[in-house]
Every structure is written in C-alpha cells, then in structure tokens.
Amino acid sequence: MAFTLAPLPYSYEALSAAISTDIMRLHHDKHHQSYVDKLNMALGDYPDGSKTSLEQLLSTLDSAPQNIRTALRNFGGGHYNHQLFWQIMSPNGGGQPGGELGEALMAKYGSFQAFVDAFSDAAGKLFGSGWVWLADDLTIIPMQNQDNPLMSAGAAPLMGLDVWEHAYYLDYANRRDEYIKKWWDVVDWQAISERYPSR
C-alpha cells in the first residue's frame, strides 16, 4: 500500500499572515509530493516497509535494507515532517498553550517567552537545511536535512519548524529570522497540546 499526500487542512492562502499562497502551493504540492513519490519508489524494493506506519518505519530504520536506508530516511522523513508541519499550523494560531503543555513549558523554561526565544535561537542558528523540533520531553532538538527525533533521539516530536530555504525564501529571501518570528503567529497550540502525553 503506497503512502499518499493528504490535502492541506486549510486553504493555500489561510496562513498568509506568515506564509504566502505561492509558498504553500510550492511547498505542499511540489516538495511534499516529491517526498511521497520518492518514498514509494524506494519502498518498491522493501515491500515490508509499506505494511507498517510511517512512524514505525522511521523509528526502525536500522532494520531496513542497507541499500535503501538513506532514501527511507530522506524521503520518509520528508513525508512525515511535512505531514506534521501542516497539522500544527492554523489560520487561528498564535498565542500560547494552556493546560498541561503550557504549565510544563513554563516549568522547564521559566516562561513561555523564554521557550520561544530558545526555540527561535536554535532555528536561526541551524546551519544549512533542516528542522527544529520540540520533543515530547520538551527538549528542543535541531536536526539536519529531513531527520526527526523518531530516528535517533528515542522521542516523539510535538512540533517542528521547517527551516529549509524552500519553506520561506520566496517570501523572506535570506531573512530566516523574520520567517521564524512570523511563524509563531500560525502555530496551532491546540493541535500541539493534543499530541502532548499526559504525565
């Protein structure tokens, strides 16, 4: 069974306060679709991989055949990361989380703003292309390329910020810091809170 690209959970222009319609179309319809297509191509040589969830596939990469492991890491990671990215943003986003997640972030970082500053700093300093993750233990994990915490950190990601240039360059050129700052306006804390495990 092949993996497929789900439609966005909102319109292409819905996040235009931070991400333009042009970038959303390019990012979702071209880049994400390419990851899905290349993942399915790689799985043609590994039929067992198509019988499991994407999360299981990525957390057990070492058991995949050596000759396609890099493809599964890159394209499976690309599919998973973008799938999560679309889900943790909303035109009604912004603000800050309440409930258990809000309390836990305050306890760990001292304030919500201190968390935002630490996450933004990690995203701004990540060299080259990659993602910055908030893991389910509330650590901030910068990772290169399409890697995510499922692959090596033994943690599940609550949210991730894509800092590949294709995610922002049409809108912000080389001003990654501006993209990061605007992105907080579309973060869907309700969706992220639902991913946070009760302690």
Please state the overall shape, judged from the principal axes of the Cα atoms. globular
CATH architecture of the largest domain: 3-Layer(bab) Sandwich
Task: Tell me the CATH topology of the largest domain.
Answer: minor pseudopilin epsh fold
The N- and C-terminal alpha carbons lie at a distance of: 35 Å
Please write the CATH class name of the largest domain.
Alpha Beta
- Ranges where pLDDT stays below 50 over 5 or more residues in a row are none
- CATH homologous superfamily heading of the largest domain: Iron/manganese superoxide dismutase, C-terminal domain
Mean pLDDT: 94
Mind explaining what this structure looks like?
This protein is mainly alpha-helical. The protein has two domains: 21-87, Orthogonal Bundle (Helix Hairpins), CATH 1.10.287; 99-195, 3-Layer(bab) Sandwich (minor pseudopilin epsh fold), CATH 3.55.40.20. It has helices at residues 21-43, 54-59, 66-87, 99-109, 112-125, 149-152, 169-172, 176-183, 189-195, and strands spanning 130-135, 140-144, 157-162. Strands 2-1-3 form a three-stranded antiparallel beta sheet, sandwiched between helices. The chain is globular and about 45 Å long. The model has no long low-confidence stretch (mean pLDDT 94).
